[in-house]
Amino acid sequence: MPWFKSVNKLKISQLLFVSHLILVLWLVFTMTYNRYRSEWETGITHAVSNARSSSNAIIDLVSPSAAGLNYTNVKLDSSLKLYAAAEKLIYFSVDAISDFSSTPFAFAYLRKPELVWKTHNQEQDIAQQEAKIEQFKRRLLADDADKVKLTFLMGRAQERLLRFYMDMNHERQYGPLFPLPNIAPDDYLLLPDKQQLVLHLALRNRHQGSIYLFFDAQHLYQLQRDIRWQLFKEALTAVLFSVILIAWATWWIVRPLKRLAGNMSAHLKDIDVSQLSELERDDELGVLARRFKSLVERAQGQMVELEQRSELDALTQLGSRFYFNACSEDYVSQAKRAQQCVGFLICDLDNFKAYNDSLGHPEGDKVLRRVGLCIQSTMKRETDKAFRLGGEEFVVLLQTHQVNDIQPIAVQLCQQLEGLEIPHPQNAPFEVVTMSIGIGFVNAENLRHLNSIDQIYEVADQALYRAKAAGRNAIELTEWTPAST
Fold first, then answer.
1. Domain GGDEF: where (predicted)?
2. By three-state DSSP, how is residue 428 classified?
């Protein structure tokens, strides 16, 4: 297809336009979100401002009533009309102290049903009022009692007691529906679960006091939903458009780069650069792929040559430490499959530093070559492997049918080296070059539980330490078991 061929000819420099476009889309999304925040905060500010304006007339009415402890004033029909005129007001609660008697003044208003009640009544108030009524009843029984006056006073007391009961009932019924939140004076709080706006304002009497006003905020949350829906539509449009661009860029640029990166992260000898489809491309990715192919092929050739050189220790012709690290785990896996026992021998020349210090390193190198030949002559089977780990330390790996076959090989190594009678005056009491051997071995049954060659290496190293401590030219064995880990 002509259009697809034209796309194939696009250069990475041209694709920068796509990245810039995605950035623009992100900026559009960010600006849309910021507009949402701005409109939402503006809506809140407007709602709070309206609520404060509606509250001023109520505070003007309640403040002098609180100062004079005048409950009658706050229950008048005109007062109820004033409360009802406050737009979206649902409920308010007043808590103040009288300016003249330091008596608490507290009441609440609920729009539906239209109720005003005291909120600070206690059971003891009812008890006192009931006691007063009983007192009036007893006084009425007296012969000289002013029955008209006492009857009037007792009626007043009974009305007050009834109001106490009604107020307490209203508080129990409606008070829990409007728990007062912890808001600083002259501040507000939105209650999303109830869709309410709560203001905490101060009264204007001398002892002040406070009023909590609950307003219906459903319109505010409807505004929030409208803003979010608009934001969602705009963001969805931007995201869909961006996904299309990203998918295209991924197909044409990112995916080939990932393939190249994946090849780079693989082991060098496992990379097959001949299969890279990017080699046929005419753009910068094609140039990169071809140069990568050239670099890998050159590095693979050098690696083959280096591995051939590094597998052998140049001085002793035994396996090198590099070769030991590369093949030791496979050696254990092979023994597991063959259901063999494994022996791990760490051989260390005794007092060899003193030999080098007294006779010189060239003479020491000659001894190391002879030790290498000695170890090679002891290795009879195809599965026997020997390595020089460094300095005067050697490792021998053995596979045997029985664990009892391992120690004789170590004894033969020690005896054969001692039999060379290489003079070593600093190695008393033997006066010749000797070695100590630490053996770690594991039988075929336990070998199944061995997770790493390092586990048996550790027990062999501990055995070597004991051999040195025993006077050198000695052999110590330690069996590895799962409990050794």
1. 340-480
2. coil
| DSSP character at residue 181 | P
The one-letter amino acid at 73: N
- Helical segments of 187-217, H only: none
Type of residue found at 337: R
Q: Name 311's Cβ contacts closer than 8 Å, sequence gap at least 6.
A: 319, 320, 322, 323, 326
**Nearest-10 crossing angle of helices 284-310, 255-265:** 10
Distance CA(313)–CA(316), nearest Å, equals 6
Q: What pTM did the predictor assign? A: 0.48
Helix, coil or strand: residue 201:
strand
Residue 124 is which amino acid?
A: Q
Q: Is 224 helix (H, G, I), strand (E, B) or coil?
A: helix
What DSSP character marks residue 180?
Answer: P
Q: Report the alpha-carbon distance of residue 197 to residue 217 in Å, rounded.
A: 6
Give me the phi and psi of 250, to 5 degrees please: -65, -40
Indicate the burial class of 17 (C-beta count within 10 angstroms; 0-12, 13-18, 19 or more). Answer: exposed
CA dist list (Å): 56 to 49, 60, 82, 121, 346? 11, 6, 11, 27, 94
Cα separation, 462 vs 211, in Å, equals 81
- pLDDT tens digits for range 393-422: 999 999 999 999 999 999 999 999 999 999
φ and ψ at 69, to 5 degrees? 55, 45
Dihedral sign from CA coordinates of 241, 244, 249, 250: positive
Phi, psi at 258, each rounded to 5°: -65, -40
Tell me phi and psi for residue 474, to 5 degrees. Answer: -135, 165
